Amino acid sequence: MELYQLRQFQAAARHKNMTRAAGELCIAQPALSKTIHKLEEEFGAQLFIRNKKGLECTRQGEILLEYADRILALSEDAARAVSESLGDAGEIRLCLRSSAVLVSNVLKDFIHEHPHVSFSISSEPKGCDLLIDSVSSAYDIPDNAHLLMTEEICLAVSSSHPLAHTGHISVEQMMDEKFIDLADTPSYAGVFNSIFSKCKKTPQIAYSCNDYILQGKLISLGLGVSFVASVTWTSSSLPENISLLHIDDCPHFRSIYYQPLGSFCSENQRIFEHQLEEYFKNLNN
């Protein structure tokens, strides 16, 4: 059994299709089929079942895939560790699912100090070294993750809003507001649904966008209101004529954390993690 065989098997299992897997691997489909056949002979077990939907792993195929994922990940970690020992600054693969505005400040400072380190940023954790995400409760943070900050969720309104000077609002008062929805943002949808889950009706969604800058512009023009994370909002270069209102009878918070992924952690990643912690510590102070 060779590493290239495991890579080919892994691709076939992931795509559930020989043609697509062969295309990703840049090899001919018969060559891929031959590799799978050799593995089945070596293990004395059928690894795939072919049906109308494509390929499905057998129980033995699922077992092999679990080990193949681990072996290939360790192989890549070994290569990166040796490369780092030879002076290669390498790449930090970052999964950024939350707090992009704040994390970009850390990235800017880090890249200035370490110009030879590159970053790849994704919204999916698979294949990444580090995950930055948020949850509604600090109790939901994964065991091996590190809490960076907990911040209050407030309602952002235009400074001309009748309640802007009070600094507070109730859920009942929010029922008459026109909301600006952040489309395709699970964390926003979670806050919205949680706050209004006990009510018999929900407020009107006046606008839907997927851009924080546009969200801020619409709020500042008095075209609607929206939920925002308080510290993130006040630390961003967004419109100034916006007031944040505390939600009196249904307070909400979010906890931002980072979580190392995989078994390999480069020295540069450790430095970046330290700078993350220092940056958020200063925000909290």
Molecular structure report:
By secondary structure, the protein is α/β, with parallel strands linked by helices. The protein folds into 2 domains: about 5-85, Arc Repressor Mutant, subunit A, CATH 1.10.10.10; about 95-285, D-Maltodextrin-Binding Protein, domain 2, CATH 3.40.190. About 45% of the residues lie in helices and about 25% in strands. It has 10 helices and 12 strands. Strands 3, 4, 5, 6, 7, 10, 11 and 12 form an 8-stranded mixed sheet that branches. It has a two-stranded antiparallel sheet with strand order 1-2. Strand 3, helix 5 (about 100-115) and strand 4 (about 120) form a beta-alpha-beta unit. The radius of gyration is 24 Å and the shape is elongated. The model has no long low-confidence stretch (mean pLDDT about 90). InterPro entries: LysR_HTH_N, LysR_subst-bd, WH-like_DNA-bd_sf, WH_DNA-bd_sf. This is LysR family transcriptional regulator. Belongs to the LysR transcriptional regulatory family. Keywords: DNA-binding, Transcription, Transcription regulation.
List the helices and strands and how they pair.
Layout (H helix, E strand, L loop, with lengths): L2 H13 L2 H8 L3 H15 L4 E4 L2 E4 L1 H27 L5 E6 L3 H14 L4 E5 L7 E6 L10 E13 L9 E2 L1 H4 L3 E5 L3 H11 L7 E6 L2 H9 L5 E4 H5 L7 E6 L4 E9 L6 H18 L1
Essential attributes:
10 helices, 2 domains, 44% helix, alpha/beta, Arc Repressor Mutant, subunit A, 285 residues, D-Maltodextrin-Binding Protein, domain 2, two-stranded antiparallel sheet, 12 strands
Strand % is: 15-25%
Which CATH architecture of the largest domain is right?
Answer: 3-Layer(aba) Sandwich
Give the proportion of residues in helices: 40-55%
Q: How many domains comprise the coordinates? A: 2
Judging from the principal axes of the Cα atoms, what is the shape?
elongated
